[in-house]
Write a structure and sequence with these properties.
single chain, alpha+beta, Molybdenum Cofactor Biosythetic Enzyme, Chain A, Molybdopterin biosynthesis moea protein, domain 2, Molybdopterin biosynthesis moeA protein, domain 3, 4 domains, six-stranded mixed β-sheet, 7 helices, elongated
Amino acid sequence: MEHHDIRMRGFATRHDVDEALTILAPRITPLPSEVIPLDEGLDRVLAEDIVAGLDVPHFDRSAVDGYGVRARDTFGASDYNPIPLTLKGEILPGRALDLTLGANEAVRIMTGAPLPAGADAVVMAEYAEEDKEHVNILQPISPFKNVGRVGEDIRRGDVVLARGRRLRPQDLGVLASIQVAHIAVYRRPTVALIITGNELVQVGQPLTGCQIVDSNSLTLAGLSRRLGAVPVYKGIIGDDYHVIKDTIQKTTEDVVIITGGTSVGAEDFAPLIIQELGELVVHGVAMRPSSPVGFGFIQRQPIFLIPGNPVSALVAFDAFVGPTLQRLQGLQPAYPYAKVRGILTRKIASAIGRVDFVRVRRTAAGVEPLRVTGASILSSTTRADGFVIVDKNSEGLDEGQEVEVYVYS
């Protein structure tokens, strides 16, 4: 473990954020697919195109309550010249009527009911008046007016939803309409959460001396779940080289997150262990907060070194772990936050060559950068409505400048 001990020397070089992401991206490929029942498909990502095996609708059906007619029989109809048609019965949804409409005949029909043979249009009830065995048509109608045609919504053979789509509630409804009861989706990634630090205790445990509560496992688990992953909590591990190494070696999850012990201090063992077991690809990124972030691989398993500082942990997850979890599910990486534009109420200073993630509040006056020093102010993440990214080529943003805000809610 002495071969190139990086501890207590600081970071010789820091990777650029984009450069680090470019190194990471090609090494992450989608997980295998699995077949699940449609009703479990919400927010899952399709692993194959869905092709319609039937037309929707699969029969001509009425789009309104009214009267099924032959359009040519209504020519010339008006309030002053009602055209009487002979009523041949009534058709309700789900019940076909075994008849063929002849000349000057009509049938009472409800929305969604099948159009009988011979009929080619439906007159809305308000443009007709029933009179015992007849219905008087008060307006001419064109062929196929108020009719849902076969395949009008979905044609057999159409690609209804494409691979890589994250399924929304309405998507599940569409798939049901074409009789898709099971779907192939990418497997959900599992995420091992290894929290290190002698000073940490679990929430609910009594605090003594200079201990602090582990808050990161809750935040990181929540961020993972939101992106469709399954977090697996490995507990709090003390700052012990052999215990941390043993814990890492035993993880079988798709992704490993280690927080704490990831920088260049005397007790920062995680980078050394990754170097020993696999390869440490990136350690130290030109960003603020979260510059000690890093990642490596043991065989093909990505391992992320996330700073123990809560705000840094949030930023590091969004920047590197989030895109990885999305790629594993066949998604194109994107921040899971809505974007809004606003005017800065105060300038933000930055440095060329560094990307800054600046927490902001949206107020009546505009977008207000939070006055916080360092990365450590946990409450700033809840006071913040979102964040603004200052590009690496910028020395900062001026008061009054329009900015793009990634909104947390």
